């Protein structure tokens, strides 16, 4: 066995002779592993957080893990005076394999064999042994220095000072965060009418969360720097402090190198997006001219300009982003790929309904069935179109209620547009009344037109007109038509028109009733010729022409 204790009664030559005999006996009693046998798991010797050497082969029947344990026991058994001495190296050969023994005087520490070499590292056995001796010497010097009271007292004093500074910094960070949040809240409350601060008020909770995250990040940074500094003040834990500082500087170096390396590609992406915006702005100017009527394009109608502009904008920006995407930093990383898969999955799940609504919206726009400001009848909903969106259409009905109708539902139902053909004449409204055959039709026409002319909200030009819609069994059906400018006021205008019609008929003694006969009257129900032009009918009134 390798010597692990100091024997004062033996001289150094005798110790080395005993060491050689042990090697011989071990070689005869325990054969070395054959080359074709499986290699045992490697083990690394650490001493006071410092890696010394990695054992990869078995030595005299001892696997690497046990070699590490025996080496640690021998190093720990060194007396304090031996830790400051130089580590010596003695080469040897056993069973045709070279090795180097590391020892301090007669205190044997461990052996390094050719089987411990890393094939990928490309270094010799002597170089590996020298590196292990240097690392172990540094670790032994740190252990020796740690036993000096002045070193410990200096480390404790600097650690206490660093702790005080860290606590002050943590307090200042907390106070600064609270001051910033409070100042921002006061600014919001001092400008309640400002649109910018109104948006900030809605995002107040988000601002608080961001402030808390920023404070937590600064606290962790201070704690990380404090721990790095404190560990580096003591010789035994100095490797841990060095690792923390190396990690921090390595991270900063990686980030800095990544940012510098990404500048050319990022500049290219920015230029591509800038050109895309410039091209999109030029297209926007064209559509503005088309909307104002300064440009005439076949197939491009005023009702479809906005929708066409949006579609072209989406196509332009989609092409620009597709071209710029490969130049965006980390675009080929697993994170970006994961986001792409997630968005693709979400789009697949919700695309059926969304695409149906989008296509229905395009059908509404390009069929020009309705547009903003049109007065329409959709069956159960009658009102003015306030918005034609990509997914739904909003209608303001007569009760001043906003009704939202999905475009898919709107496409599948008939649409009556009262404004499309009105042009400058205004929206056409009508009302019906049935009067018996004993009332002259000319008188009824005159009374209905007079009532319309007296009704506020109805236009005098074009002039109101009356049609006789049907000749029933017992009465004549009259329908009055007039034009109005504000379709949303249809209900109050019709109410006023109905009141004026009643006043007109009451003024001239005409009964608004549709007579039903139980039996035929004795006299024919006709209008005498002398009553054909009864007031307010004019003498030259002719039957209306279709």
Automatic annotation (TrEMBL):
<keyword id="KW-0812">Transmembrane</keyword>
<feature type="domain" description="Mechanosensitive ion channel MscS">
    <location>
        <begin position="354"/>
        <end position="420"/>
    </location>
</feature>
<keyword id="KW-0407">Ion channel</keyword>
<dbReference type="GO" id="GO:0005886">
    <property type="term" value="C:plasma membrane"/>
</dbReference>
<keyword id="KW-0406">Ion transport</keyword>
<feature type="transmembrane region" description="Helical">
    <location>
        <begin position="150"/>
        <end position="173"/>
    </location>
</feature>
<comment type="function">
    <text>Mechanosensitive channel that participates in the regulation of osmotic pressure changes within the cell, opening in response to stretch forces in the membrane lipid bilayer, without the need for other proteins. Contributes to normal resistance to hypoosmotic shock. Forms an ion channel of 1.0 nanosiemens conductance with a slight preference for anions.</text>
</comment>
<dbReference type="Pfam" id="PF00924">
    <property type="entry name" value="MS_channel_2nd"/>
</dbReference>
<dbReference type="Pfam" id="PF21082">
    <property type="entry name" value="MS_channel_3rd"/>
</dbReference>
<feature type="transmembrane region" description="Helical">
    <location>
        <begin position="254"/>
        <end position="275"/>
    </location>
</feature>
<keyword id="KW-0732">Signal</keyword>
<dbReference type="GO" id="GO:0008381">
    <property type="term" value="F:mechanosensitive monoatomic ion channel activity"/>
</dbReference>
<comment type="subunit">
    <text>Homoheptamer.</text>
</comment>
<dbReference type="InterPro" id="IPR011066">
    <property type="entry name" value="MscS_channel_C_sf"/>
</dbReference>
<dbReference type="InterPro" id="IPR010920">
    <property type="entry name" value="LSM_dom_sf"/>
</dbReference>
<protein>
    <recommendedName>
        <fullName>Small-conductance mechanosensitive channel</fullName>
    </recommendedName>
</protein>
<keyword id="KW-1003">Cell membrane</keyword>
<feature type="transmembrane region" description="Helical">
    <location>
        <begin position="340"/>
        <end position="366"/>
    </location>
</feature>
<feature type="domain" description="Mechanosensitive ion channel MscS C-terminal">
    <location>
        <begin position="429"/>
        <end position="512"/>
    </location>
</feature>
<keyword id="KW-0813">Transport</keyword>
<dbReference type="InterPro" id="IPR023408">
    <property type="entry name" value="MscS_beta-dom_sf"/>
</dbReference>
<keyword id="KW-0472">Membrane</keyword>
<dbReference type="InterPro" id="IPR006685">
    <property type="entry name" value="MscS_channel_2nd"/>
</dbReference>
<feature type="transmembrane region" description="Helical">
    <location>
        <begin position="311"/>
        <end position="328"/>
    </location>
</feature>
<keyword id="KW-1133">Transmembrane helix</keyword>
<dbReference type="InterPro" id="IPR049278">
    <property type="entry name" value="MS_channel_C"/>
</dbReference>
<dbReference type="InterPro" id="IPR045275">
    <property type="entry name" value="MscS_archaea/bacteria_type"/>
</dbReference>
<feature type="transmembrane region" description="Helical">
    <location>
        <begin position="213"/>
        <end position="234"/>
    </location>
</feature>
<keyword id="KW-0997">Cell inner membrane</keyword>
<comment type="similarity">
    <text>Belongs to the MscS (TC 1.A.23) family.</text>
</comment>
<feature type="signal peptide">
    <location>
        <begin position="1"/>
        <end position="34"/>
    </location>
</feature>
